[in-house]
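Risk register update: the risk that structure generation would not scale has been downgraded. Supporting records follow, first protein first.
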Amino acid sequence: MSFPFAMRTRRVLIFCLFSVIAIVDCLIVQLHARPQVEAQCGEDVKLMCNVSSSQQMDVKVLSWVAFNRTLCEYERNRTEKEFHCETTKLKDDQTLTLKLNNVMPVNTGKYLCKVQSTGGVNSTATMVTIQECKGRSTASKNISHAECSFKGVYPSGSVHWFQGNTNLTNSSSTKEIKDQHGLYNIHSTLDVKGEHLHLQHYNCSLWIPSLRKYLSWQQPPLVEEVGSSVGSATVRLQTGLCMMIVRVMQDVL
């Protein structure tokens, strides 16, 4: 009756023995990489993965993997528009470098470095993040509405409208589009009153909730609309431009 018990005990001991060997085998090869890299929008970023071992070993596979795709492989230097791979070999260790070009929000995420060698297997991860992308902004105002546009910004935000200390945000209409780079294009419109428009100052600001700060601020300048007598076309002229044309005409006459 004790025979089956003895067999089970033997199997458990064998399993534990192989588990210990596997753990020791994995510890022979070590990987070193920065756990987190915070990049500036549009800059180049280098991710370096260093392999070392307490014993002599041969690297069979060393790679950078991200988004279900192998980007770099050991001893296979590779150059593409988005990234570049480079291998450095020294006496006691090897380094695989992944250079990300013009980093955008779409490039943020976890990058995994993997190694398989005669000294064992191991992996480590680097998380790439971007704090913010300021992009560019424009603003305008006429007798019917004021507009603000924020292009190429990150993270996403909301447009706040003020006239003096009065918050007009709830009266505005805002649309947001995310492009292929993970950047946001945000356009907001606010209906305004035409009477004494030149005395009314409207401010629009882009609030980023995740950063708890305003990323950009605009005061829409006045754009006068002059109706054309031909058809229903409307010609927009800046006040300063009108004055310049009048002066030129006076000089000619």
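Supporting record for the second protein:
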Amino acid sequence: MNIEQDEEEELLLALLLQEEQEPERRRRMWVRQPVLRRQEMGEFRALMAQERENGSAFHNAYRMSPEAFDELTVQLEPALRRQDTNFRLAITPAEKLALTIRYLASGMSQKDVARFFRLGRATVSKAIPEVCQAIWNIIGPIELPPLTEESWLEDAAEFERRWNFPHCLGAIDGKHIAIQKPGLSGSAFYNYKGGCSVLLMAVADADYRFKYVHVGAFGREHDSTVFNRCGFGQRLARSELNLPVAPEGDLPNCFVGDEAFPLRETIMRPYPGRALDEGDDAQQTRRKVYNYRLSRARRVVENAFGILVTKWRIFRQPIIAKTSTVDDIVRASCVLHNFLRRRDGVSNDRRYIEVNDVDHDDRDGNVVPGPWRAHGEAMGLRDAGRLAANTYTRAAASARDKLAEYFVSEQGRLPWQEAVVRRGARE
């Protein structure tokens, strides 16, 4: 027993001597060198500070003025602030907001955002949905307030004043948001255009602002189930939108949409092409004038989507992110769109939407397309296709006919509408 014990002690002593002779191993760094220099070389501390002195450069990079950015920071700070530790300082709310807006505005990858801001990629991928959720939860209720009867009536008055469509509560449309195919998703997100997407449904007011947004439907759902299953369609069917009721005999209060939507008493869509050649000349002219007038009002939502893609280039290619993060990105972008549009004309900032950024009429009533249309469907937003079955009631058809008759009456006609229709203008 003593011999064995002596051998064990000698072996243990030899091991201890070997450890003392071996050079000390360098501890692997837990923060990369570029990240350590974030305070002096990161975009937030270096470049952004310089761009604040040049309003145009700051606006081009962040789509807003420094004052608007600071306003957002103040509102979001309580939700984004984290505790500093003894090992490192937490990323400030302003820096989180800056990298998120830069990501949305530039369309660059999260990897590139991390490189420019001198942050870890995992840090950036965690910060982006965090900021987007904060924008939706805190700024969203301000920029997308609860739907009330008073707000609908204000929107209807503005539609009549600006777009000559009485009793219009909003313009509705749906778009496919292109995304990278999620893992193990099968064909759930595969749309009729041959790519993967989620569906965004929106209602826009007369000033190109979103009144209601719903995102998250699978891209393959382009048939009659989409509209009925989305939040807006369900709330409309259950009469939960607080819509004002038009007096009996008056024109109907309604939304305007394209051929993708069903004709209902509360949703007006164009006459189909075959109906434009049926009946006598007066009937054909009345229907064509109706389609022209509806198109003028409906263009606001098309332009709202167009501006969204133009300003926030994240939508110009498939979004590479988790599907939950995609939903956060879309919601936050719509809120930022409204936030910046509301500031147009109120402050001396550079305008978010200039007059020539959107469709507008010339002196003869012809449509001058906004520059965003030149990109067409090469962008990451595509038309949703048919969203509901084309079946309707007699009451819905009667409501459309009533509007058509009003648009050619002395009270409701526009001086140039017949000339535009005769020229065969297509809007």
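The longest helix spans residues 281-311. On this basis the risk owner (M.S.) recommends closing the item.
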